[in-house]
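Quick one before lunch.
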Amino acid sequence: VVNEAEVVSALFMKGIMATVNETLSRDAVKLVCEQFEVEVLEVEDEQIETMAKKTNEFISESDLEKLKPRPPVVTIMGHVDHGKTSLLDYIRKEKVAAGEAGGITQAIGAYRVPVEVEGETHTCVFLDTPGHEAFSAMRARGAKVTDIAVIVVAADDGVRPQTLEAISHAKAAEVPIVVAINKVDKDGASVEKVMQELSAQAQLYPEEWGGDVAMVPVSAKKGTGVDELLEAIMLVAEVSEFSANPDREAKGTVIEATLDRKRGPLATVVVQCGTLRRGDVMLCGDAFGKVRALLDHTGKSLKEAGPSEAVQVMGLSGVPAAGEVFEIRPDLDDARSKAEERGYTQRTQRLANLAGEGKITLQSLAAAAAVAEEGLEFGRLNLILKVDVAGSAEAIRSALEALPQDTIGLRFLLSMTGDVSISDIDLAQASEAVVLGFNVQVPPAAEAHSKETGIEVKQYNVIYDLVDDIRKAMEGMMEPEE
Ligand code: GDP
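Model of the guanosine-5'-diphosphate complex:
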């Protein structure tokens, strides 16, 4: 028997950063199996791979026959003050509460919205925490909950730095984007200008101009266009064919959790596959317990919750972290021993982190990419570039792009002006990237976050030095070290 810590450390030795409850890529699994001399059985490879996107990656061969459509899970992101909260409020009040006796009594962090399309009622699930920080923090823990990102851009203000950040986060997570061009009721609002800016600065092209991104003019204040926005979301969902197997034990992700004085730990989870039932034994990080109650956003107690449903769970032994993946275990003894083991592994992992291992640095990423030499998929070096002026970004990008990339490619997740932010570091952590700063500052909060997460931020003042470092790292990849 090989324990989790051994697998994590084996992966680390291969240059792959993984946490205990991370979903591994096929190639990473192969590597580990080779290392421990375990035979890999590959089943219906391609089919599973294409299905993984639609099912949020919780899928195995036995699910293939039983997949059923499920509602999309949507997150709203965008620049501060562009109207994320207003849009969520409008949808919550007008589209959810209006349809329910008693309204919403429980803020559980997510709610179901009925959407009428061509006379039929479909459902869409909104995560109630706006902002890409939440999105990336979850992804950094290995959770992929969101199916569709709605990017809100105010029509009187246009594309701003956090708009671009949000788009980078969605693109890095390979989540389809729908744009809500908000505040169209205001003087000086220009939908056209927003479309132009999105095309030029973010390579998002509106459908009206032959592109493939739905951009819907809305007013979160007056409610104009919100139905059209919901329809556009459902259309993307339809094309994406999101699905899951409801007929198995549940698996999913925690989106919020708190400790309630009377009721103990409460966790809101999104079920991503299977069906969660009252009485199930849940294991969630190092918390576990028999599910005593499942509550929806009206406070109603449910017997069960299927794929894409968000419910509040009562009965856990502790408060799990947002982004933690939950699973169902056969009985309490089993769950308890797994939880204890995990608590132990997580502590040792934290120690290992403190001891300076498990960091994402140019070097460790180079080591990970070296595996590409063996024909695996890690031959990509993800970069986040923050610069003083737009001209530097262009100069650096073109110098880097001129480096030979036949074996290892460079991928820019973000290149923009401005100081290194906490959100850059979250994006780096979620996407395994290094942050390169050119003539910019790293404010103390970002510096602290970089230390805490082990994400390297490299600072430069001379373009040559930056390019030379990356070149060396890439060459290192191409000639794996002894
Ligand atoms: P967030 O920071 O993105 O969550 O933005 P908020 O939802 O807090 O909105 C910021 C400000 O813009 C608030 O004063 C809102 O009342 C206002 N606002 C939001 N949407 C609209 C809109 O469609 N029209 C107008 N006129 N104002 C809006």
